[in-house]
Amino acid sequence: MAVYTDITEAELRAFLEPYDIGELLSYKGIAEGVENSNFLMHTEKGSFILTLYEKRVDRNDLPFFLGLMEHLAESGLTCPLPVHRRDGIVLGELAGRPAAVITFLEGMWPRRPTPDHCREVGKVAAMLHLSGRGFDRSRKNALSVRAWRPLWNQSAARADEVEPGLSREVEADLERLEENWPDGLPSGVIHADLFPDNVFFLGETLSGVIDFYFACNDLFAYDVAVCLNAWCFERDGAFNMTKGLALLSGYQSVRPVTAAEAEALPMLAHGAALRFFLTRLYDWLNVPDGAMVVKKDPMEYLRYMRFHRNIGSAAEYGLRQSGAESH
Ligand SMILES: Nc1ncnc2c1ncn2[C@@H]1O[C@H](COP(=O)(O)OP(=O)(O)O)[C@@H](O)[C@H]1O
Ligand SMILES: N[C@@H](CCOP(=O)(O)O)C(=O)O
């Protein structure tokens, strides 16, 4: 359960006083998520999410994240919105943490994604990439290729405790990725964490996207690579080409990928797998067992890294190119 910071009712009532959301009727911690503390609140005016931003979120990035949600919503992409206080402010402080009230998004995330879900998420990723173009703020990806080695260095000495030989294997992957990481591909605002638990559906219809707290400016195709990993592998570790095809054709129906992006996709998918392996490994080794958070398995992502190392072309993910190029 991701509640790192608990709050009292009195503190919360005082925090909510400047908002116009009616009287607080109930609140409880949300048993999902990894990064921040989230609470579901019921007030006289409906349901809201209260988020307390924890230590891995840089306070200076919050205007980017909150502004992006407003920008995307204005462009027609369904996502939660930060609630403004009567004085216009969206960001306050609660229990020593930056905190915001966010509108509640109806829907459920798919526990067992189908090809139809994958097609929808491909489309929404592309819509996000196009909509992000008019956003006037930018944020570097703090977890891109240059950040991986410092992150790895914090776990390397203990990696072989998780699996013998892991240290040598990851080191080799890291070198390969650092030497071959593509640049110059189409880029802009990406979500960077578009996992199933961040995409809500009502029935078969995508009802919205949440959790923009890794969003940044980076390669569009890297975001696609993150999605391929998060949506298209089965629980037994096998890549599901039908899901890959659906996700990529959904994406291409909104924004066709360029030939250079297609060529880079295996390297990007390998790097995207390493990025989530590294944060999960760090948490696996460092988050105390008693913490109210469900640690995610780094080995799932090691299996994906092994898979991508042997991919020769994006066609093996299901990419079908028409020859059309876009930017
Ligand atoms: N706007 C929202 N509407 C509905 N539920 C939400 C909303 N934001 C967060 N949640 C719930 O809280 C959980 C954790 O949120 P998330 O933003 O993924 O946290 P974290 O940033 O800690 O990973 C989600 O899986 C969802 O159940
Ligand atoms: N998606 C990441 C962890 C980040 O947590 P989220 O709950 O914000 O998606 C992973 O699976 O490692």
TrEMBL record:
UniProt-listed SUPFAM superfamilies: Protein kinase-like (PK-like)
Catalytic activity, as annotated: L-homoserine + ATP = O-phospho-L-homoserine + ADP + H(+)
Domain Aminoglycoside phosphotransferase span(s) in chain numbering: 27-256
Protein keywords: Amino-acid biosynthesis, ATP-binding, Kinase, Nucleotide-binding, Threonine biosynthesis, Transferase
The keyword Nucleotide-binding is annotated on this UniProt entry: yes
GO function terms (MF aspect): homoserine kinase activity
Database matches in Pfam families: APH (PF01636)
UniProt key word Transferase: yes
EC numbers on record: 2.7.1.39
Pathway(s) annotated for this protein in UniProt: Amino-acid biosynthesis; L-threonine biosynthesis; L-threonine from L-aspartate: step 4/5
Top class in the EC scheme: transferase
InterPro entries from the UniProt entry: Aminoglycoside_PTrfase, Homoserine_kinase_II, Kinase-like_dom_sf, Pseudomonas-type_ThrB
Protein family per UniProt: Belongs to the pseudomonas-type ThrB family.
Protein's UniProt name: Homoserine kinase
Organism phylogeny: Bacteria, Pseudomonadati, Pseudomonadota, Alphaproteobacteria, Hyphomicrobiales
Gene name as annotated: thrB
